[in-house]
Amino acid sequence: MRAVAAIGIGQTKIEEQWDKSLKEIAGEAIFAAVQDCGIDHVDGVFVGNMMSASANKQQNLGTYITDWIGAKHVSAVRLESACSSGSAAFRAGFLAVASGEVEIALVVGVEKMTDSPTAEITSDLATAASADWEVDQGLSFVALNALLMRRYMHETGWQHKDFAPFSINAHANAMQNPFARFHMELTEQKYLEAGMICDPINLMDASPIGDGAAAIILVPADKVSGRVIRVVGSAAATDTIAAHDRKDPTWLSAAERSSKKAYAQAGLSPQDIDFFEYHDAFTIMAALSLEACGFTERGEGPRMAAEGEIRKNARLPVATMGGLKARGHPVGATGVYQIVEVIQQLRGTAGKNQLEKARIGMAQNIGGSGSNIITHILRNND
Fold first, then answer.
1. What is the mean pLDDT of residues 152-165?
2. Burial label, 123 (beta-carbon count in 10 A; 0-12, 13-18, 19+)
3. What per-residue confidence (pLDDT) applies to 227?
4. Residue of 319, 271, 318, 313 whose CA lies nearest to 296
5. At how many degrees (to 10) do helices 118-126 and 141-156 cross?
6. Burial (CB count <10 Å: 0-12, 13-18, 19+), residue 26
7. Is 329 among the catalytic positions?
8. Contact predicate 296/303, CB 8 Å
9. CA 321, CA 195: separation in Å to the nearest integer?
10. CA-based Rg of the chain, rounded to a whole angstrom?
11. Are the CB atoms for 217 and 37 separated by under 8 Å?
12. CB count, 10 Å around CB of 165?
């Protein structure tokens, strides 16, 4: 397998983009990535997307997007794994280049969600859960995460207010990210006063949807001179699609397995990771991810946040550009946004959110309630 480097990145602001189609949003991110690295062609296109068929009435996204950007006659495919679709596309592009099958891979994650009524999007999101044993029993995706959070609180003794630091940190970091959906400071009081969605999850525990796209260009690392941002770990793992079928619903087994595989590939341990772009679709997932990836002991995720260890330039900065909570969560694009942000930090181009120590970064994208989890580790070998 060849070493793989990321040489171009692009992204759009996450917002309600009423005046742009799915392909236009994707095109903006792609052209930004192409301009960033100066290439004039690609050999393979990998599209991450979850709900274009229902929300946009469009399938066949590989051809749909390559036709729009003028990249005709190349290999192109759409990949879907619920909310981890973006990182699934990145992993496919990475493996294509690493294997030697593709020389220049274009990865793009895109989702256009705000054209559809809220009820339809809620139903679409629920398709990431088990149709037989969760959705058909009346569970929405928020309700499913609320059940996990309630069980976690029961087992660990943490209270709802103890999850506030996760959201407060995300909003503080998003303030300096021009591509983030929310530029709004959050206090503990505002967190506690937020409207309840599904007890114990309130509005400030949940990430917002939106329209957006992010893109990355991958090439063999030996084709790059000077600073090289290498993909040193790429791993995926699954768990049962229904949360109740797991031996322990409050432990993200797929996160544990995929992170351990990625650490082994990179020759690293959790202590070597400088920062972590986790999948904070809900604050409960933030806590569970920190624990499953080995950054803290089981049941101690909220303590890590409360003690300030996840803040910028602390022990393990997380959600450095706002995370899903404040940057926004256009589901099929999120995994690519996360890796774009890792690359920004490794390049030293994260602006006011730039970390003092950013040589090794990790991104983890969660599909479903923890049923499909993909982990990537990137390193600056400059």
1. 98
2. middle
3. 84
4. 271
5. 60
6. buried
7. yes
8. yes
9. 25
10. 19
11. yes
12. 23
Distances in Å between the Cα of 14 and the Cα atoms of 88, 179, 333 are: 20, 6, 10
Residue 155 has pLDDT above 70, yes or no: yes
pTM above 0.85, yes or no: yes
Q: What is the DSSP string of 127-185?
A: TTS-TTTTGGGT--HHHHHHHHHHHHHHHH---GGGGHHHHHHHHHHHTT-TT-S----
Residues in the chain: 382
Could you give the domains of the chain? 4-117+208-380 (3.40.47.10)
Do residues 255 and 279 make contact, with C-beta atoms less than 8 angstroms apart?
no
Residue of 160, 171, 279, 329 with catalytic role: 329
pLDDT digits (tens, 9 = 90+) for 298-352: 999 999 999 999 999 999 999 999 999 999 999 999 999 999 999 999 999 999 9
Per DSSP, helices labelled H in the chain are 22-37, 61-69, 85-99, 118-126, 141-156, 164-174, 188-193, 253-266, 283-292, 301-306, 331-347
Helix (H) or strand (E) holding 107: strand 105-111
Angle, CA 373 vertex, CA 369 and CA 377 arms, to 5°: 145
Look at residues 277, 320, 270 and name the one whose alpha carbon lies nearest to residue 293.
270
Catalytic residue among 73, 83, 244, 293: 83
Band of pLDDT at residue 382, cut at 50, 70 and 90: low
Is 376 an annotated catalytic residue?
no
The answer to whether 324 and 334 are in contact (CB under 8 A) is yes
Please report, as a single letter, which amino acid is at residue 350: A
Phi, psi of 83 (to 5 degrees): -70, -10
Q: b vs e for 300-337, b when ≥16 Cβ sit within 10 Å of the residue's Cβ?
A: bbbbbbbeebbbbeeebbbbbbbbbbbbbbbbbbbbbb
Q: List b or e across 80-94, with b for residues whose CB sees 16 or more CB atoms inside 10 angstroms.
A: bbbbbbbbbbbbbbb
